[in-house]
Amino acid sequence: MTETSAELQLLVWSVILTFVLILVPATQSVLTNGLKVMAGPRDAVPEPSVTNKRLRRLAANMIENMVLFTPLVLAAAAAGISNHWTVLGCQLFLGGRVVHAFVYAFGVPWIRPLFWAVAATGMGMIAWQLLA
Asked: Is 49 inside any structural domain?
């Protein structure tokens, strides 16, 4: 059995983080509006709370970033590129996204873009190795 690369393991953890970030506002909506309303066609769902809207934006933002991160990691794996730069890039992405999630969820101003930039730098490091 072959060992999964660190990059692919970090991709899986990023997928798990994405799932959690989708699940949190969905669960909050069920708790607020009830299962009957949320399991139906949702044509007449009450306006979400400010917190729920923020959590939905956070989930959408994570999905947008995964659209960029996932093909970079998979392209590196397909090309057989795995080194300290690609591993560090994946670590920066996941670490930056975890902190970004907490900062975003709690509405902390000004520093959220810094952690987005950490994650973006990680993606840049992987892309750099693909283009080198």
From this structure: yes
